[in-house]
Amino acid sequence: xxxxxxxxxxxxxxxxxxxxxxxxxxxxxxxxxxxxxxxxxxxxxxxxxxxxxxxxxxxxxxxxxxxxxxxxxxxxxxxxxxxxxxxxxxxxxxxxxxxxxxxxxxxxxxxxxxxxxxxxxxxxxxxxxxxxxxxxxxxxxxxxxxxxxxxxxxxxxxxxxxxxxxxxxxxxxxxxxxxxxxxxxxxxxxxxxxxxxxxxxxxxxxxxxxxxxxxxxxxxxxxxxxxxxxxxxxxxxxxxxxxxxxxxxxxxxxxxxxxxxxxxxxxxxxxxxxxxxxxxxxxxxxxxxxxxxxxxxxxxxxxxxxxxxxxxxxxxxxxxxxxxxxxxxxxxxxxxxxxxxxxxxxxxxxxxxxxxxxxxxxxxxxxxxxxxxxxxxxxxxxxxxxxxxxxxxxxxxxxxxxxxxxxxxxxxxxxxxxxxxxxxxxxxxxxxxxxxxxxxxxxxxxxxxxxxxxxxxxxxxxxxxxxxxxxxxxxxxxxxxxxxxxxxxxxxxxxxxxxxxxxxxxxxxxxxxxxxxxxxxxxxxxxxxxxxxxxxxxxxxxxxxxxxxxxxxxxxxxxxxxxxxxxxxx
Length: 570
Fold this sequence. Notes:
Layout: H1 2-26, H2 32-48, H3 91-98, H4 107-144, E1 147-149, E2 152-157, E3 164-166, E4 169-173, H5 180-194, H6 197-210, H7 215-238, H8 243-252, E5 264-265, H9 271-279, H10 285-322, E6 351-357, E7 360-363, E8 366-368, H11 373-380, E9 387-392, H12 398-410, E10 415-421, E11 427-433, H13 453-458, E12 462-467, H14 475-489, E13 495-500, H15 507-533, H16 545-555, E14 562-564
Parallel strand pairs: 2-4, 6-9, 9-10, 12-13, 13-14
Antiparallel strand pairs: 1-2, 3-4, 3-5, 6-7, 7-8, 10-11
Helix pairs in contact: 1-2, 1-10, 2-7, 4-6, 5-7, 6-7, 14-15, 15-16
C-alpha cells in the first residue's frame, strides 16, 4: 500500500513538472497539434515512468536472497515436530490482548488506510460523474433523435444551448438549422469529429478520476480542450472563412450554458484567448527551438527520475544488506531474515524477552549474567511450554549465544523464538526448539542420541552437514531441498540435517543460514501442498480438522529433522 501511495505522489509531481513546462514554453506557440499530443503524452509519461522502478516479475521465493524475502510468511506449525503453533490464539492470549488493543494499534497503517478510503471515494465520485455525463448525452440523443448529415449525426435540440459535439454527434439548437451561422458551426464541429477529440477527453477524464486529488490534471484537461478549439479554429480559417465573421459568430454564441467534461462547446469560454490566438503570428524558428528544448527537457527529466528511482532502490538494498535498519531504542540491529511481521502466539506470562548485544544480556529489560538465567526463569514463573523471545544484535559473537542456549537447555526452556527484521524493519520470527540437554535426565524428556558418523552408519541415517558460520549462503536452502528430495526418492525418512557453528561466528550469519535451511523444508512442503490440495502450506489452520489432516498428509514421511551439534562436535 505504501508503494502505491508513493507511486501516486511521484506520478503527480512528474505531471506537475511536465505540465509547467507546457505552460511556460509551449502554450503560446501555434503548434496546436503538437501541443495536443504533448498534453496527452505527459499524462502517459507520468503514469509509466514511476513504474519503471517497480519489479513486476520477481523471482520465485526460493531463488531470492534472504533480504528480499521480507514478505514471505514463516510458520508456527512446528519446530522440529514438537513445537507447533497453527495460526491460533488461545483464550488466555485473546483476553490478555483485549486490554491493550488500543495501544497496539498501528496508527500509521490506520492513517494510510484512511487516506486510501478517501482516495477511493474520490475515484468513485469522478467515475460516476463521467458515467452520468455519457448517460445524459445518450439520453439527449434518444429523446431528440438525430439526422445524418454527410458522416455527421446532427441532433436537433429544442431548448436553446450552445452547439457542441461528442464523438460523431453534433448537437445544435433546432432554430439554428439552415442559417448562415450553421455552416460555420458545422465546419467547426466537423474538425472535432474528424480528429477524434472526444476520445482524447474520454481518455484523460478516466485518468483524472484516479488522480482527482491532483489539481494539475484538471488544468491539463482545460488546456487540452482549449487546444482542441485552437485546432478547429485554425482549420476553419485555413478553409477561407472570414476572420471577422468567424470571431463575430463566436461572440454571438456566447450564451449561458453548462459545459460538460466530455463535450466540445462551440463557444467554450476562453473566447478572448481564442480570438487572440487567431490573430497571432505563426510560430517560426524560435518557436521550433522552444519545442526542441521542451522535448529535450522532458526526456532528460524523465531519465533523471528513473535514475533517482534506481538510486533509491539501490540505497534500500544496500541498507538491507548491511542490516542497518533499527526499530529499537536500545540500538540492537536485528539480522534481516525471512519471515512475517511478528505477533506472538503466547501470553505475557508464557514469554520472556532476552536481548543480547556486546556480550551483555538483558531479560525483560533487566541486565543479568548468563549463569543467572535459571534463577530468573524460576522467579518469572515461565512454564515448560513458555517461550524465550531472543533478540540478538547481528554482530554478536556466537560464544555467548551458545552459553545462553546451554543454560536454557539445562532449565528445560527450549522453545526459542529467534527474532529478526524484514528489509522494511518489521519484526519477523524464526521458531527453534533446542535439543534436550545431554545427560540432564529430565522427566518426560527423552534422551537424545549422539548422532555422529558411527551412529549414523549403524542406524542407516543419512546426514547432511552444514556449517552455519563465516558467511550467509543462500545455497544452503537449495542444498537442503535437494538432500530431502533425494531422501524422498529413496523412500527414506531416516535422515538428519546436522548444523554447527563456531564461537567466533556472528549471530547474523548464523540466523540467516538457519532460516535458509528451514526454507528448504518449507519449499518442499509448499510444493506438496499445492500439488495435493492446491493450498498454501503456510496458511493451513491446524485448528480445522480437515486442514489438520491435510497438514499431516503433506508432512508424512518428511520430518523437519534439523539437529544442532554439541559444542564438543564443533
